C-alpha cells in the first residue's frame, strides 16, 4: 500500500470509529450511504433505454433500491423517524456524496462521447458501476470490520454479497463489450480515486463540524 492509500485508510478507520460510537452520527452515516445507493438506483434506471433493459440490469437496480431502503431502515431504528427522509441534516455530507457520483458519471460518459446514445448509456453504466462497486466493497468492508453492532454486520453481509456479484457481472460485460477495457480502466481508476479523496475529506470536515460543542 502506498503512503497516500495508507493515510486514506487511517482516515477512514478513524472516521468510522467516531461514527459508530454515537447513534446519531451513526444514523447520519447510514443515511448518507442510503442516499448514495438511492442515487445509484435512480441512475441505473435512467441510464438504459427501455428496449435494452435486461433482467440483469433490472435486478441490479432493484438491489440498489433495496440497499438504500435497508440502510435507511437501520438509520431510523438507531435514531428515530426524523431519518425517514433525505433532508441534508439527516446525512453527513449530502452535497459531496452527490457530487462524487455525478462527477464520476460525467467523467465516464466523456469517454464515450462519440458513441451512439444507447451505446454511450450502456458503457457509462458499466464503468460507473464498476468503479463505485470497487469503492463500495472497500468502504463497507472497513465499516463492517469496525462495527460493534452485530445486527448491522449481518445486514451488511447480504449487501456485500450482492455488491460483489454486481462487480463481477459488470466486469464480465465490460471485458466482452469494450476492446479498450484495460487502458480505459487504467485511466479511470485514478480519476475515481481523486474524487473519493475529495469525498472523504468532506466527510471528515462534516464530522468535525458535528462534534464541535455548541
Ligand atoms: Fe448497493
Ligand atoms: Fe451494487
Automatic annotation (TrEMBL):
Q: Which InterPro entries does the UniProt entry name for this protein?
A: Ferritin-like_SF (IPR009078)
Which domain of life does the UniProt lineage start with? Bacteria
Its recorded name reads Uncharacterized protein
- Tell me the organism: Beijerinckia indica subsp. indica (strain ATCC 9039 / DSM 1715 / NCIMB 8712)
Q: Lineage of the source organism?
A: Bacteria, Pseudomonadati, Pseudomonadota, Alphaproteobacteria, Hyphomicrobiales
Amino acid at each position: 500500500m502506498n503512503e497516500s492509500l495508507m493515510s486514506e485508510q487511517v482516515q477512514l478507520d478513524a472516521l468510522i470509529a467516531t461514527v459508530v460510537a454515537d447513534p446519531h452520527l451513526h444514523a447520519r452515516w447510514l443515511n448518507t450511504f442510503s442516499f448514495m445507493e438511492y442515487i445509484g438506483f435512480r441512475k441505473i434506471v435512467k441510464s438504459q433505454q427501455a428496449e435494452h433493459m435486461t433482467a440483469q440490469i433490472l435486478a441490479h437496480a432493484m438491489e440498489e433500491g433495496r440497499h438504500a431502503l435497508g440502510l435507511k431502515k437501520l438509520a431510523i431504528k438507531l435514531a428515530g423517524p426524523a431519518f425517514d427522509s433525505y433532508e441534508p441534516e439527516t446525512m453527513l455530507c449530502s452535497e459531496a456524496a452527490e457530487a462524487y457520483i455525478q462527477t464520476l458519471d460525467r467523467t465516464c460518459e466523456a469517454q464515450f462521447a462519440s458513441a451512439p446514445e444507447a451505446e454511450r448509456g450502456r458503457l457509462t453504466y458499466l464503468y460507473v458501476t464498476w468503479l463505485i462497486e470497487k469503492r463500495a466493497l472497500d468502504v463497507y468492508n472497513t465499516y463492517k470490520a469496525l462495527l460493534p453492532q452485530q445486527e448491522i454486520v449481518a445486514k451488511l453481509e447480504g449487501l456485500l454479497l450482492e455488491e460483489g456479484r454486481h462487480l463481477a457481472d459488470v466486469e464480465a460485460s465490460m471485458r466482452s463489450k469494450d476492446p479498450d477495457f484495460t487502458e480505459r480502466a487504467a485511466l479511470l481508476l485514478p480519476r475515481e480515486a481523486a474524487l473519493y479523496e475529495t469525498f472523504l475529506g468532506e466527510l471528515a470536515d462534516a464530522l468535525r463540524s458535528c462534534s464541535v460543542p455548541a
